[in-house]
């Protein structure tokens, strides 16, 4: 067993059971003109982490470790979109409406796609999720079980919503979770800081956090 330098203490990595999950690095959340920007958010904060997310993805690929991508999106008929979710956010531009990048957060639309710099390659799993957590109404649990995964490294957006929600879901299912600090971001820096503090509080109550360099150094010897 290898150790990854982490907070609140070293993460006990088992490389043969480790996978990277990249949460919702989609055009609608990261690019100017997308859904995130329509809500008044500074999307440049999201674009800032793209190089670090890319480094992580490349490191996992080079080590032969699984990379799993998620996308928050809904069916074109909106049958998996609860009214309570649709009715929140920008009242003039909601999920399913036509936006600058096609229908907002609808499967198959241009804005729903993962950023080209981080696009999945052949053989990598892509999970389309209708909720904030990646386990809700998806096949993620089955995919991880089939691959023998017990430990998850997390990157993506936003730290306090979809990333933290998925980490909490995974924690309750018995997975050991590690958040890559520079490879996750929020539109609000104080929210990211609070989420990181909550995740690693009370002896890693939800999980660990670590620097990208320390994660890469460990998996380079996988």
From TrEMBL:
Residues 19-207 form the Isochorismatase-like domain. Keywords: Hydrolase. GO terms for molecular function: hydrolase activity. The keyword Hydrolase applies. InterPro entries: Isochorismatase-like_dom, Isochorismatase-like_hydrls, Isochorismatase-like_sf. Gene3D superfamilies: Isochorismatase-like (3.40.50.850). This is Cysteine hydrolase. It comes from the Bacteria.
């Amino acid at each position: 067993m290898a150790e990854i330098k982490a907070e609140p203490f070293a993460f006990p990595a088992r490389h043969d059971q480790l996978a990277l999950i990249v949460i919702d690095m989609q055009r609608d959340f990261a690019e100017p003109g997308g859904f995130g920007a329509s809500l008044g958010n500074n999307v440049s904060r999201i674009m800032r982490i793209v190089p670090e997310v890319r480094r992580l993805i490349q490191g996992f690929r080079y080590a032969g470790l699984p990379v799993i991508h998620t996308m928050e999106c809904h069916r074109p008929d909106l049958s998996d979109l609860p009214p309570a979710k649709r009715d929140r956010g920008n009242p003039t531009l909601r999920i399913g409406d036509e936006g600058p990048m096609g229908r907002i957060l609808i499967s198959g639309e241009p804005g729903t796609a993962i950023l080209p710099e981080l696009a999945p390659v052949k053989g990598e799993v892509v999970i389309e999720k209708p909720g904030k957590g990646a386990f809700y109404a998806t096949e993620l649990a089955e995919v991880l079980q089939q691959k023998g995964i017990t430990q998850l490294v997390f990157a993506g957006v936003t730290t306090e919503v979809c990333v933290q929600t998925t980490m909490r879901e995974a924690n309750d299912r018995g997975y050991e979770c590690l958040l890559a600090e520079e490879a996750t971001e929020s539109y609000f820096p104080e929210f990211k800081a609070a989420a990181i503090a909550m995740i690693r509080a009370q002896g890693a109550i939800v999980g660990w956090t670590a620097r990208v360099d320390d994660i890469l150094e460990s998996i380079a010897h996988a």
